[in-house]
Amino acid sequence: MIYQEFQPDLLLDDFVKSYWWFDNSTTGQLDFTILPDGCFDLIISFNNYKQNEISLTGLWTKQVEVSIEPNTQLFGIRFKLLAVDYILQQNIAYFCDSEQVKSNDFWQIDTIPFDDLNKATEELNKIILSALGSKQGIDGRKQKLFNLLYQTNGEQTVEQYSQQVCWTSRQINRYFKERFGLPLKAYCKILRCRASYKHIKDGKLYPELNYFDQSHFIKDLKKHTGNNPTELFENKNDRFLQLATMKKK
Prior knowledge:
The chain is an alpha+beta fold. Helix content is 39%, strand content 20%. The longest helix is centred in the C-terminal third of the chain and has 18 residues, at 184-201.
């Protein structure tokens, strides 16, 4: 298999985490478990490098099993949550743990040649920047909240975030449920699990983050990934794609 990541334009840092490309260059089906990472993706699938389908995922709150057929390629835009309001301008709550199929001409993606991935990402940068328009209309509370969440890996309480952004916890939770399909506290747990993946990859199987104890860490990890730290670390047959493609320190 071939897996690559590409960084977005710096102006999109608040909205796009990365672009990624996956190519099943083998002659057999590849099976993976995708772990929740706190982002959502626009995924363009190809068969023999010919565009097949475009889908938008919601947030994943649990592991998802995927099978990738031979001669299949995938290109993804991994979005941060602020993109919901200011790039896509749509609610993704109703397909949490699922996906929504888009038309093949969405954003005129069908006109982009993906034989040169660097040029493809440049074109997508232009499309997304055009959809964004001006940053002047962005709600400063939301921008600050998401920056804090990513910087702290969701380790603070909802009340602590609320106080720092001057936005009531009740309003924040209503916003999260309406836009993303889960309360902020649940999203924070996903971010903490995501942050633990790099520790597990390095063989650190005890919580490095703000967990009460080891049993709480394992409970949250199993809830969102279906596996305990040892199973994730062993990663038999490179089943957990994020761990398989993550670089060790």
